[in-house]
Design goal:
- The structure is a single chain.
- The longest helix has 22 residues, at 176-197.
- The protein has 10 helices and 2 strands.
- Helix 2 (54-62) crosses helix 9 (176-197).
- By secondary structure, the chain is mostly helical.
- The chain is 40% helix and 2% strand.
- It has helices at residues 13-23, 54-62, 69-79, 91-96, 102-106, 132-135, 137-149, 164-167, 176-197, 232-246, and strands at 154-156, 204-206.
- It has a two-stranded parallel ribbon with strand order 1-2.
- The protein is extended, with a radius of gyration of 26 Å.
């Protein structure tokens, strides 16, 4: 005898929702945080208890001083129990919205910059967003302030490509320390100005440290998988220089 005929029909969005709701079940999850023995591990900073005077913290930021790590930790551990804290948005995409040209990146300081790359071509500075801390400092500071006024608790410095390796693509290795120092100063200035307006909510600065344009894990040459165009020591030296400027 002939078996039943299988009929396949496309379900409607409402039928799909009902099917998914039918699979829903409620569960109860519990967890017990096990405290390690003293000295057995590093302290869990997210669980460190403590308190900090918010007014004192705000006064330090307004004066462009640097709060102690313990103060920052105590503040955020306390705040995160009450609300969601926010980091800023993308700096690169925000800068793109300004539609800057070569002259904007060069500014007065680098208007006569005439370095030549390996192909014998004049190096273009357009796209080197980190360089704007020199050529467009007010714009960089105002972008930080936009994010702060939009609700961000923390803004990152405009130093994502602030290493000698990444800046080497633009022949700008010599300004790396100064670039990071200036980037931190602009962000702290923005934090101070907004905190002065809203002392009930101190604003903080995080140093942005991005990847370089080179990697230790993959060879840039398909013919030689073992080849690397950068060494571990070179990367360490590049990041040490960046952090020195930020700090």
């Amino acid at each position: 005898p002939q078996g039943p005929v299988m009929k396949i029909e496309k379900s409607s969005p409402e039928q799909q929702k009902q099917s998914l709701r039918a699979l829903k079940c409620e569960v109860t999850c519990t967890a017990e945080h096990v405290q390690p023995e003293a000295g057995a591990s590093l302290p869990d900073v997210c669980r460190t208890e403590g308190s900090v005077d918010k007014n004192t913290l705000a006064e330090k930021i307004i004066a462009r001083q640097t709060p102690a790590p313990s103060e920052v930790l105590a503040y955020f551990n306390s705040e995160l129990k009450e609300r969601i804290c926010f980091l800023d948005g993308g700096m690169g995409t925000r800068i793109q919205a300004e539609k800057l040209e070569e002259a904007d990146y060069r500014g007065e300081r680098f208007k006569d910059f005439k370095e030549i790359d390996a192909n014998g071509v004049l190096v273009s500075l357009k796209g080197n967003n980190d360089l704007l801390v020199f050529s467009k400092p007010e714009m960089v500071k105002d972008i930080h302030k936009e994010y702060y006024m939009g609700g961000s608790d923390i803004c990152e410095t405009n130093t994502f490509n602030g290493t000698t390796i990444s800046q080497g693509e633009y022949k700008m290795q010599s300004v790396v320390y100064e670039l990071n120092k200036r980037g931190a100063e602009l962000a702290k200035q923005a934090a101070a100005e907004v905190t002065k307006e809203q002392p009930h909510k101190p604003r903080f600065v995080a140093g942005a440290v991005g990847p370089t344009s080179r990697t230790l894990s993959v060879s840039p040459s398909v013919e030689d998988p073992s080849f690397r165009n950068v060494t571990w020591d070179e990367l360490v030296e590049a990041y040490v220089e960046q952090i020195r400027g930020l700090v």
